[in-house]
# Entry
Amino acid sequence: QLAEYRVASGLYVGLTVDEIMVTARRQVASRVVSQFTRKLSDGRTLAITIRPRDDGGWVTTHQDVTERERLDARLGEQNERLRQQETALKAQNLILDAALETMSQGLCMFDADQRVITCNSRYAEMYGLSAEQVRAGTPLRRIVEHRIAKGLFIAAGPEEYLRERMAPVLAPSNTIHELSDGRSIAIARRPTPGGGWVTTHEDITEHRRKEARIAHMAHHDALTNLPNRVLLNERLELALARTRQGETAACHLLDLDDFKNVNDTLGHPAGDKLLRQVAERLRTLVRETDTIARMGGDEFAILQSGLTQPTEATSLAQRVIAAVSEPYDIDGHQVVIGTSIGIAMGPADGSTPDELIRNADLALYRAKGEGRGTFCFFEPEMDGKMQARRAMECDLRKAQLAGEFELVYQPFVNLASDEISGLEALIRWRHPEKGMITPSDFIPLAEEMGLIEPISDWVLREACMRAARWPADLRVAVNLSPAQFRRPGLVEMVVGALAASGLPAERLELEITETSLLQNSEATLGMLYQLRELGVRIAMDDFGTGYSSLSYLQSFPF
# Structure
């Protein structure tokens, strides 16, 4: 009847009275305690226990376990989430460990009690520590003491190092420590919540060395390792600043004499070796407070600071000229050069580096003009002469296009017959403001400026055109500059002038100086023989005014 009531209540889903009775009798007949749950139609869960009695009956207990079941379900879900979180945390720890161990920087984290929380192997490696010496829980003091024991402390000393490392980290900091073994370590310290901190350590030794090399290269000449113009200007600034307190500074500008011949005959590698040897000799002549610089090419500079009188500059210039003029051994070749020096004194000759160098350059120009192998001090009138020279350079560049050049002719007289046998073409420059200018005043300048070739080409063509209209027994003589023998194309220029004018080659005479033979004589002789084969006459002019030697007369059939 009880079973019928239950079924009728609709709580037993899908069960009949007979099925309930059969189940109950089977469980009682088994004479053992039975426990099971039953899901009711209203969603509740009952835990049912059946206990047999000795008299053949039984006792049943029914407990509503719906809430407990729900709680178990929630606990199961939470446990699953915890397992998932644990798995994710393990994966994150593996990633973190991998990141820590692959860092190029050393990392160590400390708690508020200055004990290690975690540390990577790079940190231990940088300071020569074992894994045991940096394990979690190790006091910072013990780590620092291990470092000091290995001799790894800042250059100031172990006590200062210990004080600095033990100081609490209250704010972010970045420092660079120069260790006693020569390494540079960049240390970044950042506080963490709770009073601890984390530090990263990076070995920047090689980086700082590269920076130092780059800084050195920016201020030094690569060939001689001397200071360059940039560093010289900085030193000049300092020296001129001290002149306001009564000191005197001297700027020597040096130019090597005959250096180009070394490059032309022995090659540029030999020229580089010579420059290095010159630099070494100069180093032996100056004080530690002086500066030697290479300005470029074969030009050097010496800054003397803290002078009391100009005679100190004179003494140095004399020693430099004597030392540089001593013979050099370059790959088995004995080389002899000289030097010319221009000197400007600060602050009298210039209150800025640019002024001092510029005026030393003017003095150098005077020294070279006086025969080289000497020195000159700057004088105010040099500036005026240089301004005049620059004006002439500007006018000279425009002179040919403006048609300001003209030729005059000086006759050759045969003394035996008292007849004119030919004429020498001589160039003149008719300046629109300065009047007639002679060759000695502008030809050397044209050679320096690289204008001699077009001017000489014009002279040769103009002389040949004029001579072609003369009687056939008259020849024309044209001077050749030594600079023309240093450039290819001289023979082609002569051939072109003869062809354009129609003048027979035997009526043209080219005059050269012995200076032309002194410079690259083998190449010069080669060009002279080519000209002779054309039928052109060759004459040596001004023999005996330079480095006279009869052997030059024998080297070619003039």
Notes: The two ends are 157 Å apart (CA to CA). The CA atoms of residues 192 and 452 lie 79 Å apart.
